[in-house]
Specification:
Distance between the termini: 63 Å
Shape: elongated
Strand order of the largest sheet: 2-1-5-4-3
Structural class: alpha+beta
Helix content: 40-55%
CATH class of the largest domain: Alpha Beta
Length: about 270
């Protein structure tokens, strides 16, 4: 690690003396760290890298290399290339549904196909949300009687899969608990599953969801993904959830009925 820190300093045209003055430590201590004869604390290492204007990915990589946790960033305010790339990716995924959501399970961005499908599967819920529908509370959407689960065929299995994932995420995001409790209570009332044992099992963020719709059955499989370099992925990272047609009939229905976005419309000559 010391040699990597030295090379970062040299690349930034910063002398050991200058860096030591910025950090408030002796030049000898800087030299010891760069020769791996001393180990910096997490606070010192973070400040060291900040003084050298190291990119976030480099900072996280160095922190992990030193045995510390990576920095956490607020996804609501972080304007990173990864987030811009996520927005482009979910729009390119349209007309298949896709959205970006934060660790608190609120939708940050939703693509055209996702907005259309929400309007088809849970119109009353979307209308009731009004402008708030642009940033749906995903847990409330699962909890509401007229929300996402209202049109799911055989809803118990996916409902319990959602609950299992949410309970696991509650460990690192405790603020989720009241909303998860309400969701679990709604499952007891709606599907009479209070006496069904739920054994511990691995969480799989890949789901198959089948819905009733005015076009007939729709079948999707979903997958959640986190973009960016491995060292930048933390519990506060935003995620994208992509939906794919699970059969040809669903694909045909989506492409035939989801209207194009204004930018996709072709004017007659």
């Amino acid at each position: 690690m010391g040699d990597k820190l030295r090379r970062l300093r040299v690349a930034g045209n910063v002398t050991q003396l200058e860096l030591s003055l910025r950090l408030g430590i002796s030049q000898r201590h800087v030299s010891f760290i760069e020769r791996d004869r001393a180990r910096p604390s997490q606070a010192l290492l973070t400040k060291w890298l900040a003084e050298l204007d190291a990119p976030a990915s480099v900072t996280n990589a160095m922190l992990l290399l030193a045995g510390y946790t990576a920095l956490h960033y607020n996804p609501q305010v972080m304007k990173s290339p990864s987030l811009r790339g996520m927005r482009g990716a979910i729009e390119a995924h349209s007309p298949m549904p896709a959205h970006i959501f934060c660790p608190e399970w609120h939708v940050m961005e939703i693509n055209h196909g996702g907005r259309w499908l929400c309007g088809e599967l849970m119109p009353n819920y979307i209308n009731r949300m009004g402008e708030a529908a642009a940033h749906l509370d995903m847990i409330d959407c699962l909890t509401a009687d007229d929300g996402l689960l209202s049109q799911v065929l055989d809803p118990i299995c996916p409902a319990l899969a959602f609950l299992n994932q949410l309970r696991m995420e509650e460990w690192v995001t405790p603020a989720l608990r009241p909303r998860i409790d309400r969701f679990e209570e709604s499952l007891w009332k709606r599907f009479n599953i209070s006496t069904q044992p739920r054994t511990s099992e691995a969480v799989d963020t890949h789901l198959v969801l089948r819905f009733n719709s005015r076009f007939g059955p729709l079948s999707f499989f979903t997958i959640q993904t986190v973009p960016g370099l491995p060292q930048d992925v933390t519990t506060s990272s935003p995620r994208a959830e992509l939906w794919f047609a699970d059969d040809r009939k669903t694909r045909e229905i989506i492409y035939a009925n989801c209207p194009p976005t204004p930018g996709e419309q072709v004017q007659a000559g």
